Amino acid sequence: MIYARRAERLHLGLLLVHVIPEDLVSHGNPEYRSVHDAIVGLLESEAGRARELAQAVHVQTRLVSGETVPVLVELSASATMVVVGTDRMATRDDMEGRMILESTVSCLRARQIHLSVSERFDSADAPARALAGASQGAAILVVGSRGLGAVQHAIMGSVTQVLPLHVPCPPILTRPAG
């Protein structure tokens, strides 16, 4: 946690921010609350770690909805120092991904009791290959597309363009409303 110690040396406050894409879950869905709570817990855990290492630093946290780059641009306008990323290994991302997956699946199972839902977390494989592997034996594969690539207005993203050719079951490709 080099950034906390540097903030202490420079007599700066520290704001830890996590940006959650608005299209990940909408605020009206029950899944949003569980994802929100999981990420707030991760932020508070990291803030506690920063406070232990740099006790003179005023540490705050903020969870923001939106797209990462515009949010960071806005927040950095008044910042003395901006640190993007983390000094921890990728296992942190895996933990967050697992928490989001578990909370989303449990909410889906609670709301759709007649639906058989399988979950599989795979951060080692390419997304399209992981989804194709996970769909083995499935009746259907539902995949969301954010369309955030170079051509934002394209009908499908790069992963969803590859899937129909490689999955053994019918895929349903969805996009956020609006």
How are the secondary structure elements laid out?
Layout (H helix, E strand, L loop, with lengths): L1 H8 L4 E7 L9 H24 L5 E7 L2 H9 L14 H21 L15 H8 L6 E4 L13 H9 L4 E4 L4
Parallel strand pairs: 1-2, 3-4
Helix pairs in contact: 2-4, 5-6
Structure, explained:
- By secondary structure, the protein is of the alpha/beta class.
- The protein is built from 6 helices and 4 strands, in the order αβαβαααβαβ.
- The strands form 2 sheets. The chain has a two-stranded parallel sheet with strand order 1-2. The chain has a two-stranded parallel sheet with strand order 3-4.
- Helix 6 links the parallel strand 3 and strand 4.
- About 4% of the residues have low confidence.
**Spatial ordering of strands, largest sheet:** 1-2
Which structural class do you get from the secondary structure elements?
alpha/beta
Number of strands: 4
Distinct helical segment count: 6
Distance between the termini: 40 Å
Counting structural domains, the number is 2
Write out key terms for the chains shown.
178 residues; alpha/beta; 2 domains; two-stranded parallel ribbon; Universal_stress_UspA
In short:
44% of the residues lie in helices and 12% in strands. It has 178 residues and is α/β, with parallel strands linked by helices. It has a two-stranded parallel sheet with strand order 1-2.
